[in-house]
Design goal:
- The structure holds two protein chains of two kinds.
- Chain A is of the alpha/beta class.
- Helix content of chain A is about 35%, strand content about 25%.
- Chain B is mainly α.
- In chain B, the strands form two sheets. Chain B has a two-stranded antiparallel ribbon.
- In chain B, strand 1 and strand 2 form a beta hairpin.
- The longest helix of chain B has about 35 residues.
- Chain B is globular, with a radius of gyration of 24 Å.
- The model of chain B has no long low-confidence stretch (mean pLDDT about 90).
- Classes of the chains: A alpha/beta, B mainly alpha.
- At the A-B interface, helix 2 and helix 7 of A face helix 8, helix 9 and helix 14 of B.
């Protein structure tokens, strides 16, 4: 059953240089216990989408429209106090840099307990007991001593465990993990991901995993949304996306991942730069970097915005090329990586 | 931590010793002959020479200095034979212009300055920080611009201008308050408040502007920190986010500024005390400079220096209270 449903989400910021359309028409659904990965480069709108769901865009000049439905509750246009009562309670978020995300002046037990008392009428003692229980759950060694540590006394992996404990302490039904392992060592990354999976299985949490790392996606995700220039350009199940990528951008992303099993040692990068959100390219936002664009499609790619359309079994693609052209391009490009030609 | 405090106190003592030496040297480089200043109009060389010997001014400078330092700890006897004069420890010297010991003079002036400084301190710090928080919450709107604009006006006017303006209108033109005449608050609280309110406002207006800007800038900086986003993501109330998370993180420079500003004032609010005829340390110092009264000058400079040194140590200790990361290193 759909638990989170986002429909035609639009987020724009009024800046001195003009209006930035950070998110344009994002639509996806998520069930409890499932993981949706949002993949994209910096500036593709993935974090903005996440913060819109959390109601963290509070500044002036922010415009949010569309629909965000969480467990039957519409979050777009909900009052500040409604959103506040849901944040950290029914929906929670962990961030990229666990050191910067923890307050440097407060003991971690205090910061955890604060999340409890913000939503539940419990005594300080009970909140602390709850904090300790969560620290044990996320695998902090010597939790009864660590609870009185300051963030700077913990290692990076421990800090992220504390962040996860803080996010899950009120048993949220939705957890948004914004690049949760980017700032961590590779060995620690695996531990954190495993922890997230374990806790997800235990609490039946819906997870939105935001990342640019397709390796993490392969481990965790059930469904994948690929974003580019504030739009969803491809949406598919894990297996579909990895084995039958359709959008040339997704193909480019997959081709640029280093792999142990590839025969060659070439990494194919996508030429050019991500687009400026203030002046997006005409037509398909990806066309200036698209290697699959051909003479037949060029006019449409440059002049006409492609729609997100279903190419079979919920696999959505935003591309003007026809099925054969896309498949041919994907096959050829990925073969280059595997064979090293 | 204890070792750190002891080290800081010792450093402070060394600074005070150097400070007193410099004051001694600079004063003695002046052309004025302190002995000649001891007797008024009917003076003759014999009296001057006699006084010179009585006050020890005939001795070499280093002995004079040594006697001065020794007197602070064990007291001192001026003169010799029958015409002696005892100055008990802590003896900060003898003012030959006023014909009085310096220590009681200071002790009489110090409470005035203490009342003035602490009153003004509270009056600028609390509204300054609150207005700074308010301005930061209304960033880019007319409320912020009004607060900062008003602060700039206060910041731009020197204290003697604000002080004279208040004195002229409130006391002389509108006669809302009697002319300032200091009494101890324990003697006559009403007259004390009537006297102090304008000096407090004067100092508060001058200092407050800086604290508004400082608080606002600090908060705007911390608002963009990741841990503030975390605090919001936890679902904390906006007031808690600002008070407990943002303000605490931006507090360090405010504490530094407040400590040093207060210490500076405790050394004597020279201009404000003069305008409102408050018999504090600042006015004592001004009079001493005009009179070339070495004993009082040295004492007031040392008092001011001591406050600064103490404030520095207190501020450093407060850092450790505010920021746990300081405690380890």
């Amino acid at each position: 059953m759909t638990f989170l449903s986002v429909k035609d989400l639009q987020v724009s910021f009024q800046t001195e240089d003009g209006v930035v359309h950070a998110v344009d028409g994002v639509t996806f659904d998520l069930e409890k216990g499932k993981t949706l990965a949002i993949v994209g480069e910096s500036g593709s709108g993935k974090s903005v989408t996440a913060q819109a769901i959390m109601g963290l865009h509070t500044g002036r000049g922010v415009k949010i429209s569309g629909e965000i439905n969480l467990g039957g509750m519409d979050l777009v246009g909900a009052s500040d106090s409604t959103l506040r009562s849901m944040r950290g309670n029914s929906m929670a978020m962990i961030f990229q840099d666990p050191f910067a995300s923890l307050h440097p002046f407060y003991r971690i037990g205090n910061q955890l307990a604060e999340a409890v008392t913000a939503h539940r009428k419990v005594s300080k003692k009970e909140a602390r007991a709850e904090a300790l229980r969560m620290l044990i759950k996320v695998g902090i060694p010597n939790p009864d001593q660590r609870i009185d540590d300051y963030p700077h006394q913990l290692s990076g992996g421990m800090r992220q465990r504390v962040m996860i404990a803080m996010a899950l302490i009120n048993g949220p039904e939705l957890l948004i993990a914004d690049e949760p392992t980017t700032a961590l060592d590779v060995t620690v990354q695996a531990q954190i991901l495993e922890l997230l999976s374990e806790l997800q299985a235990e609490f039946n949490t819906a997870i939105i995993l935001i990342t640019h790392d397709l390796g993490i996606v392969a481990d965790m995700a059930d469904e994948i949304v690929v974003m580019y220039g504030g739009r969803i350009v491809e949406r598919a199940g894990l297996h579909e996306l990895f084995y039958q990528p359709q959008m040339p951008y997704t193909v480019g992303l997959l081709a640029s991942v280093p792999r142990l099993d590839s025969a060659g040692n070439r990494l194919l990068s996508i030429g050019g730069q991500p687009p400026s959100l203030i002046s997006l390219p005409s037509g398909c936002v990806f066309h200036p970097r698209c290697a699959a664009m051909n003479a037949g499609s060029e006019e449409r790619c440059k002049g006409e915005r492609p729609d997100l359309r279903d190419v079979g079994e919920g696999h959505m693609v935003r591309c003007h090329l026809d099925d054969e052209e896309r498949t041919a391009f994907a096959t050829k490009r990925l073969a280059e990586v595997f064979t090293g030609e | 931590m204890t070792a750190y405090v002891i080290r800081r106190i010792l450093t402070g003592v060394v600074i005070l010793i150097l400070l007193s030496m410099v004051v001694f040297l600079v004063f003695n480089a002046l052309p004025a002959d302190p002995a000649a200043l001891t007797c008024g109009k009917s003076c003759n060389p014999q009296v001057i020479e006699a006084n010179r010997i009585r006050l020890g001014l005939d001795q070499p400078l280093y002995i004079q200095y040594w006697e001065f330092v020794r007197a602070i700890f064990v007291g001192r006897t001026y003169g010799s034979g029958t015409a002696t004069f005892q100055c008990n420890a802590p003896c900060l010297g003898y003012s030959f212009r006023k014909g009085e010991e310096v220590t009681p003079l200071i002790l009489k002036a110090l409470p005035v300055t203490l009342w003035l400084s602490f009153g003004a301190f509270l009056l600028w710090l609390i509204p300054g920080v609150l207005l700074g928080i308010y301005a930061s919450r209304r960033r880019g709107r007319w409320q912020e611009r009004s607060v900062l604009g008003a602060a700039l006006v206060g910041y731009s006017f020197p204290s003697f201008f604000i002080g004279l303006l208040l004195l002229f209108f409130v006391v002389i033109r509108w006669q809302w308050l009697p002319y300032p005449n200091y009494v101890s608050p324990f003697e006559d609280p009403v007259q004390f408040l009537q006297t102090m309110v304008l000096p407090w406002i004067t100092l508060a207006l001058v200092y407050m502007a800086f604290y508004i800007r400082l608080t606002r800038n600090q908060l705007l900086e911390t608002y963009s920190e990741d841990y503030i986003r975390t605090a919001r993501a936890k679902g904390l109330k906006e007031g808690t986010v600002i008070r407990k998370h943002a303000l605490r993180a931006g507090l360090t420079p405010i504490v530094t500024a407040a400590g040093l500003d207060l210490a500076g004032l405790l050394g004597g609010a020279i201009i404000t005390e003069s305008i409102f005829s408050l018999p504090g340390v600042g006015r004592l110092a001004v009079e001493a400079v005009v009179d070339a009264d070495l004993a009082i000058i040295t004492a007031t400079v040392l008092i001011a220096g001591t406050f600064i040194v103490i404030a520095n140590i207190v501020v450093d200790l407060l850092y450790a209270v505010i920021d746990p990361r300081v405690r380890l290193s």
